[in-house]
Amino acid sequence: MECTKEQIISEYKKLKLKLSRAPTSKEFYTKTGIKLYHAQKSFGSNTYTKIQQEAGDKPRKFAIEGRSKNEFFQAYGKVVRELKEIPTQADWKYRKEKPVVGSYRKVLGIKWGQMPLAFIDWAIDKPDWEDVVDICTNHCKNKNLFPENTKVSTGSYGYVYLMKANKKGWYKIGQTGSTGRRASQLSALDLYDRNYEHVLETTDPFGLENYWHRRFEAKKFSKNKKDFFEFTQDDIKAFKEFYVKKAVKG
């Protein structure tokens, strides 16, 4: 049917109200009965984009329509789990996986080779993805993709601890293979009370410590005290509830 620009916008808004969301172009042309060539007479090229803009909506982008960042990571994790290794760009394209590689760059703002690290950051506190985190972690270790400033070699069983300093509100997050030995060493600095606030048992102390340091980056002190943080009770609670584990005391 022949429509004016105003009528087309009106039909778009009615359909949006009915769906309780912005309609896709396919839904718009199917459900309103408006033909593309009629709409093009009023809006020209990039017709549906202009209809959405005129109606006050932000047009959706091709290839990433409606996808959240969580969906990007979930799609990546499913493929890693299936392959039991990190997919290359060629693997992804050969399998015709979606979202496409280019969409990952646009949405997450990182190179494809950085996806294993990004996935670890996203999934480290999600138990359902533990197997995929392990695959990504081993890949990053083998490729030396982790930051170089770690103090403990990777691949060893150990602990990540939250230790309370004598000064109120000051805490240290670190890693060790033996909580008893580390407490003894730190007590010589006369800054610690020898008791751990909480200890997380892990097969990857390196990756887990890095996760907490990145998570609380904004609460770190100056570089010469880079392992010190000023925490609230909510921060401490977040650390303690990360795993359901009994606290280990030094």
What does this structure look like?
With 250 residues, this protein is α+β, with helices and mostly antiparallel strands. It has three domains: 5-54; 69-142, no CATH class; 158-240. The chain has helices at residues 5-19, 25-32, 36-43, 47-54, 69-83, 89-94, 101-108, 115-123, 130-142, 179-187, 205-215, 233-240, and strands at residues 158-165, 170-176, 192-202, 228-230.
List keywords for this structure.
disordered C terminus, alpha+beta, 250 residues, 3 domains, single chain, 4 strands, four-stranded antiparallel beta sheet
Summarize this entry quickly.
The chain is 47% helix and 12% strand.
Q: Count of DSSP E strands? A: 4
Radius of gyration: 26 Å
Note the run of SSEs as H and E: HHHHHHHHHEEHEHEH
Coarse morphology: elongated
Topology overview:
Blueprint: H1 5-19, H2 25-32, H3 36-43, H4 47-54, H5 69-83, H6 89-94, H7 101-108, H8 115-123, H9 130-142, E1 158-165, E2 170-176, H10 179-187, E3 192-202, H11 205-215, E4 228-230, H12 233-240
Antiparallel strand pairs: 1-2, 1-3, 2-4
Helix pairs in contact: 3-4, 5-8, 5-9, 8-9
